[in-house]
Amino acid sequence: MKIHEKYMKRCLELAQLGAGNVSPNPMVGCVIVNNDQIIGEGFHEKYGQAHAEVNAINAVKNKELLNESSLYVSLEPCAHYGLTPPCADLIVAKKIPHVVIGTIDSFAKVAGKGIERMIKAGIDVQVGLLEKECRKLNKRFFTFHEKKRPYIILKWAETKDSFIDFDRTKKEFGEPTWITGEKALVRVHQMRAVEDAILVGTNTALKDNPSLTVRNCAGRNPVRLVLDNHLRLPNHLHLFDNSVKTIVFNSVKNEETGNVEFVKIDFGKKMIPQIKKILFQKNIQSLIVEGGKQLLESFIDSNNWDEAHRFVGNKLFSNGIKAPEISGKIIHSEKLDSDQLFIYQNNG
Fold it and tell me: I need a labelling partner for 129 at 20 to 30 A (CA). Which of 11, 115, 216, 346 fits?
């Protein structure tokens, strides 16, 4: 079993290389082993392009070895035609006799069908090796398909004395209040680069005029989401510069203008279930909720979150807007120069 785990861990390492480039597809890694030697490996590199199994098979120089090799893959091979042909059919066609799978794919068009197809072809299929780790890798994908909503990450920065902002006058609007340093800023942009969307409230948009883009690392920009009930946000804000797809949740209109889409919701009803439903319909699998305090607390109080990323800066404000309070299991902590990052998991 330890030998098998070694190869599945390699699949997980490879899969991670696709982070930020494959959504709404899952991250998948694959290795092909012959006589305890890896003869081919690959991962899903970009949405719409070849899957991990195809890349691993193509990497095998001597294709004659395939019919006496084992294929390891972190997620069940697909059995349907999407943007690429079914990987299960390719494995059958190449007469690979042994397949080890990390976890079943809960996407309805796969969900055991790939395994069934390979077993019917006489392939020895094993399922569930390092299943917990394989599911954790694609927590966004599994949450989306099993719970019909995006994976939700709350994020804020607070001072050592637990404030997220000081009390600002309108003259002080237009720039964020910097609480943390450069290394934490890079970490925030790395988060943005791998998540599908990012949400702020009206007050944050007005006070900070955020771009909500990826600038301090390589990666794609998330879809920008903003709450603006009565459409009172001015057009000169960065959110409306048309550089990135932006969705404005409002109570006035449904309209699309350039890269900005206005989506009407009922602010008289519970807002978060409406947003989750719309994001599911738009195939958005993960969401960062970046603020402000009222918006963050609405997600905390209604227990609509999966992770919380709490950055604590090396500053004191003494007074101002208090940071949200959160309970959950700390699953990671990290020193970022003079700042600290704590990541919480919702155990509710």
Answer: 346
Distance, C-alpha 166 to centroid of its chain: 31
**C-alpha to C-alpha distance for 221 and 112, rounded to whole angstroms:** 33
In this prediction, residue 167 carries a pLDDT of: 80
d(CA 304, CA 272): 8
Q: Is residue 53 among the annotated active site residues?
A: yes
Q: Which residues of 307-338 are buried (b: 16+ CB within 10 A; e: fewer)?
A: bbbbbbbebebeebbebbebebeeeeeeebee
Are 250 and 228 spatial neighbours (Cβ–Cβ below 8 Å)? yes
The single residue of 53, 76, 158, 290 carrying the catalytic annotation is 53
Tokens of 167: 């009390």
pLDDT digits (tens, 9 = 90+) for 169-222: 666 665 678 899 999 999 999 999 999 999 999 999 999 999 999 998 989 999
For residue 289, list its beta bridge partners. 154, 199
DSSP assignment of 253-272: --EEETTEEEEE--TTS-HH
Query: pLDDT tens digit string along 120-168?
Result: 999 999 999 999 999 999 999 999 999 999 999 999 999 999 999 988 7
Residues of the chain with pLDDT under 50: none
Type of residue found at 22: V
Q: Kindly report the pTM of this predicted structure.
A: 0.92
Q: Nearest Cα to 184, choosing from 157, 148, 220, 215?
A: 157
Contact 271, 304 (CB under 8 A): no
Instruction: Please report which helix (H) or strand (E) contains residue 33, including its range.
Output: strand 29-34
- Reported residue count of the chain is 348
CB 164 within 8 A of CB 157: yes
β pairing state of 255-257 and 260-264: antiparallel
Phi and psi dihedrals of 23, rounded to 5?
-60, 140
The angle at the Cα of 75, spanning 220 to 47, to the nearest 5 degrees, equals: 25
* DSSP bridge partners of 334: 341
Helices 2-16, 52-59: axis angle to 10 degrees equals 110
